[in-house]
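call fold(seq) -> tokens
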Amino acid sequence: ALFPTRQHFPPLRTHTSIMPSSTVSDLSYTSISSNDSLDSLDPTLDETLHETLHRVKQVKGPTAESNAATDGEVSSTQDAKLTKRSGAPSQTNQKKDKFPNLNTKPQLKRKSEVIDDFIRNFLRKHGMNRTLDSFQEEWYEIIHKNKEKDMNVIVPDAYLQNQSLDDEVKYLQQELMRTKEIAQKAMEKWDKMKKERDYHKMHHQRVQVEKKQLTKDLKRLRKHCEKYDPTLLELRRKYETAMKEKMLMRLDRDKQAAQLKAVTVQMEEQPQDGGAPQTSAPKASDRRNTTTGGGANTAVTTTVRKTKRTTLRANTATGSGAAVTSGGKVLPPDDRVNPYMHRRFAPAKADEFSLTDTFQGHTMAVSYLAIHPKKPIVATVSDDTTWKMWALPTGKVLMSGDGHADWLSGCDFHPNGTHLATSSGDSTVKIWDFFNQRCAATFTSHTQAVWACEFHDSGDFLASCSLDHTAKLWDITSNRCRATFRGQHKDSVNHVTWQPYSNVLATCSGDHSVSLWDARTTTCLDTFYGHEAAVNHCKFSLRGDTLVSCDADGKVFVWDIRMVTEIGSIDAGPHAANHVSLDSSGDTLVISCNDGKIRAFSGIKSGKFEQTAVLEGHDDAVQAAVFDRDGKFLVSAGSDCMLRLWS
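ret:
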């Protein structure tokens, strides 16, 4: 056939094939005889084509010999099989002895690929079979037409190098992607380790800060404990003195009992002697007592006076168990107008306050303070059983009092500023008269420690609260208990305060509740719940529409009295909040905390509760802090025995 089909084509070869030299002549599709000379070819062929033709002519001879050798090998294999059966030496071994070069391996040589093979390989590689058939038909047609010309054009080496470089680029790209993945994993691990490092670093810094804070607290506690040493020594000395006095009193009591018995016997014997007058016997007894007993008469007189005073107190406190007793002053009507309801005050600028002065006058912790209603005077009460009045801003002590048998817990000025009421751990409430400089009255109906007391705006009544779960209303004019508020609280009543210009008072208790009471009927009007710890203090605003309370967890709640709802809460913890106070505008709040700090908040009316300042100056817990009426300064007292002025 003129145009051979695909099955007549010789096998295709790749451009990177390396073949033995014996088969080089098979690569050419144009037959070249040994008689053809190089001069008969086209002189335009390049030197490379001439060299290829020379190599083909030189290889023709060895190729024939190798074909003959192949035929001889087949026959030698048959001879070897026959010889194996008959035991005679094989003819192949004899040929190997004659031709030792048969054992050598053929040499491999790289040969450049011709253009048609390159195209065939390309088309077959990409599955272009129809294009391959068309190409071969046209290619062989051109070969038959141009038999005299050599059509074997060599593929340039640049293509081979490009393909090799392309393979290398693909390999390097794969390696690059693999390296990128490894680098990405390493980066993720690095970020994770960095985050862990930052976390541990922050944890370490937090531990360092806590360590410093704990060290500071330990130093403060150690210093605080050192302050108690002289007090303990003084208490021990007082205890020993009291025990000695007790023994002496017992001895005096026994002597007085013996003398009284002798006088009684003598008086019983005198009528039996004839009814002589008995006027001389007491005088003799008195003289005898004076001579033998020393201060016995004084002791007896003191005992009688104490008995009378105790009887008087018992008589004045007969109404303690009743709800309301008759007689005495009457509470004013409820339709009174609060003069501060529509008056506007400028909010106190607590963020501008700084420590101005510090005063020390007590030997133990200052538990409470109160501002005089008309003058720049402040009163303080302390655990050393004394109270003091200070002039501001000089800090001069104007007056002091000592009459309670135990620590003092609260105080309050009379609305006229002429008296001071104090409450104590000895279960009593005392009223002190400044003009006469004496104790005007003592109320003893409480059975346990009294925590606080506060005057009514009329000045005729005083409210107090106690550890005995009750609050009491005292009539100042008749010096007796008018009412007792009980039944609502299940724990100690820690504070009591009046709503300005009304007959409503509020109490807070260790049972986590705040209650409102009607003083006329002693009935509980409402109770506020929300605290999760004992409520330490509560206070009304000057307008009377807002009530603020604080507890032992540092939580502060603001209550709307008109709507009987909670406006909001402030977390000033984790330390306990001991006292709260509002300025005259009712928009600025200060909280006395157990960590020695005073925290100020603004926006109380709107419910925003923005912290504006933290006043630090006390070395121990702050027990109370109060604004003056104009909001120009703040006075605070604490367990460090100090009174501090901020302005």
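Confidence is low (pLDDT under 50) at residues 1-46, 59-78, 80-88, 272-326.
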